């Protein structure tokens, strides 16, 4: 454990911050807390150091290729690569019920398209048996999408990046042209965020199928967590929500690959369009949380 190197994106607050804390507590040798904003990132690291933990900080803007390349070069030169990548960086739109094009485009760029920049520069330096966790959401389950054409394309066994890109382009074009149809979606609140996370989960299945070196890639719903993103609404604390991502990073069997993992470590069939996962059930969350305390 002490020889492992872990990277958490978007980690100056919220779930990312909590994951860094838990990885440090578990004895991972080097844990990088990364953030777009240098001051906020360093402040977060100093806060953890006051708790006796020793994360490293490195600036990282997942949407800027030169930033990702610079960090990848640092990891390669200093460590020869790394073992754990938790893609947590994400944003949500400010307008809850209304989908605005520029806002939707920005959400897609950060939450989905940035993963291709990460893949280009950081996947080549992942070590043998490395683990990648793409943080998604229950809002990223395929049951959020009701358009049968796109559901069929995204859930096919041999789904490709082109299928997902076409889906994202269709969504953004519909927003831009004012042709969105409510019946194409289960819920239209936070629609840009939902569709970005649907794309993330679909991409996870593609990445898992094509990666080598026995690398395990999974997507994750961390639970309905009290963070700034949820405006402090939720059933779980940040500390509670970090148990499962760290389980995927350190504890689960290496054969667990290409799955959609729930906050309680259970596997859910992401391709099941009839699975009712749109809202986290409060009773089941509280039952799980009771096991952690």
From TrEMBL:
Name of the gene: LOC112049432
Keywords (A to Z) from UniProt: NADP, Oxidoreductase
GO MF entries: carbonyl reductase (NADPH) activity
Name listed for the protein in its UniProt record: carbonyl reductase (NADPH)
PANTHER family xref list: CARBONYL REDUCTASE 1-RELATED, CHAIN DEHYDROGENASE FAMILY PROTEIN, PUTATIVE (AFU_ORTHOLOGUE AFUA_3G15350)-RELATED
Keyword Oxidoreductase in annotation: yes
Gene3D superfamilies associated with the record: NAD(P)-binding Rossmann-like Domain
Cross-referenced Pfam families: adh_short
Coiled-coil boundaries: none
Keyword set includes Cell membrane: no
EC number(s) from the headed UniProt entry: 1.1.1.184
Family to which the UniProt record says this protein belongs: Belongs to the short-chain dehydrogenases/reductases (SDR) family.
Entry-linked InterPro entries: CBR1-like, NAD(P)-bd_dom_sf, SDR_fam
